Amino acid sequence: PVVQADIDEGPAHARHAMSMVAALLLERFQNGAAPLAVVSMDNCSHNGEKLQASVMTVAKAWLEKGYVGQDFIDYLSDESKITFPWSMIDKITPRPHKIVEESLEKDGIEGMTPIVTSKNTFIAAFVNAERPQYLVVEDKFPNGRPALEKAGVYMTDRETVNKTERMKVTTCLNPLHTAMSVYGCMLGYDLICAEMKDEDIVALIKRLGYVEGLPVVVDPKILDPKAFIDEVIEQRLPNPFMPDMPQRIATDTSQKVGIRFGETIKSYIAEGRDLNTLVSIPLAIAGWLRYLLAIDDNGNAFEVSADPLKDDLQAKLAGIEFGKPETVTDQLDGILSNASIFGSDLTKTVLADKIKAYFKAEIAGAGAVRKTLHKAVNG
Hints:
- This protein is mainly α.
- It folds into 3 domains: 2-87, no CATH class; 89-155, no CATH class; 158-378, N-(1-d-carboxylethyl)-l-norvaline Dehydrogenase, domain 2 (Orthogonal Bundle).
- The protein is 49% helix and 5% strand.
- The protein has 18 helices and 7 strands.
- A 3-stranded mixed beta sheet has the order 3-6-7, with helices on one face.
- A hairpin with a 5-residue loop joins strand 4 (115-116) and strand 5.
- It is globular.
């Protein structure tokens, strides 16, 4: 509704972020039409493309309403004038945490208590983040740019930005995060760094990254995939001053599994690799489905993180009872066959039976998740 209102009322009343960007570009156009690179820092793939599509949608609607002329659209469409470079940003920065606040106060730094808004947004005088950080930007700046590479920014071409993004989200970081988050929630953890002291969870993600992911990783050349995983496992995830929570990572998992696991599965199929060799990927998917039952490994109820498909997925698991593996019949097929979730129909692969077997083992009773995880990663 807010975007529709911006379209109807025109540039002078822009209130949505994308409408504001379009209005600012119109102001620039009307005052000399100087070139500009509009760089998205959103943490999503093809971010420049998404930003461009959003701005152009608003601008073309204004053209239809008579608020702007075709010459403005031409300005936005001319890459010698306006560009929307892609970028890949990687720096985990969760909300301000009490651990960091207390650490600062012990050092005599006061007034660190965050302000929490009515929408549960945290604002603080400190940021708990991590030392490793990556920013890869498409070098498409029609009006010149600062020497960003001197500050460690990787300036490169669009294909390399895309490959770096794929390396991170399909192999070297995000799959590890998702796998450990669902198991962490079921095993009673509330900190990612604490999970890194759990030998079974560490074995799970090491196999996922090094053994199952690296053989089909997209290599961007500007970063070494194996060294990237080394840093994730040895420095980033164990960092106690970056107190991220598995409950946060588990949010919207249905929107993530297709990229974080599905792409590797598709690569295995495309290259003729044996899907039977996969352990961590089917274990991670089985763990996610087990997590959706909202019962931890001790048999206690817990709150599943927000997910747009949560209600639908949990409805499909109806009839499955904790402690009764025999109640698992064909409920999982309705989920595993959904190519919009996994990127392909997993019931047409050997992975479906493997996932079902892990799932059934994990609902056998209290301690079954731990037992199944331990056996699978040490088998």
